[in-house]
Amino acid sequence: MIQEELPEELQEVLGELINIAFGSATATIADLFDNFATLHVPAISFVALDELDTFIFQDFNLQDVYTTTQQFKGRFQGEVVFAMDRHSARNMQRIIFADEGPGSQEILDDDELKQSILEISNILGSSCIGKLAELLGTNVTFAPPSIEFADTLTQERRALSYRHIIVISTVLDFKDMEVAGKLFIMFTDEMFNWLHTALNNYLENI
Amino acid sequence: MKILIVDDSKLSRLTILKRIPAAIKESAEIFQGANGLEAVALYKEHRPDIVFLDLTMPEMDGFEALQLIRDFDQNSWVHIVTADIQAKSQEKVLGMGAISVEAKPIAEKRLAEIFAALP
Ligand SMILES: [Mg+2]
To answer: What is the number of H-type helices and E-type strands within chain A?
Structure first.
């Protein structure tokens, strides 16, 4: 796991690069909806695949959690998963439809809710990973995102040998409205080695 | 010249530190802080000629620190170096009197321009 295998100074580099990447992703969303989000110091942790469930469900109810997943490919590749609960999903929807006048704030049906979730997760996940890749001197392409049931997430990822998972506990803290979620970046041993080298290069060439 | 660099990330402070033009670094006194409280305290103590200030920090964020520094010294020369590149954040700090907002990581060339433009 990253915590044991990545030297502390490189964990710090990774942490700050993720901070920059997440800031850029938040700005994309906030500017898009002409809103403003207070940025917080992101909480970053590293977990193993076996601990993923615990990590997702310690803050969310199983029936309530929406997860979106998106694969990215390139020199650095893996999968990015965004999980949030229903309350946050509703808030996200309000932010998206805030401009559409009276009536738009009424609860839309579940399909529309899912569309909103997909849209935001797509922007958040791809701009965060895209920026991280850019900072590490490479670029990635993205498969379209899809919604998945959280309870099968771990199970299905096992086959893909994602041994390393970075968890960013995120809050999109909009005025009077909070979208709390967790962003998981998952990748294999091979990608871990690439990341290790890339972080080293970054630090050496500051 | 006195330079104050404030960021909760050691890496970000190091990035600025390393990229300051060599000729300036040689003769400069450089102070570092890790949050807004330290920024304000170090500013009052040393009266730096230029400040590089992060926004997202624990204890006290850069918005509040900028305000306190501006209240203390209307002539302060503060550049914001941040991952918060939202349009509304930029407007806010520029309105408060920051000289510029720089997206992290700041480039060496940009730092040279910033020092060249110092009054
Ligand atoms: Mg910071």
So the answer is: 7, 8
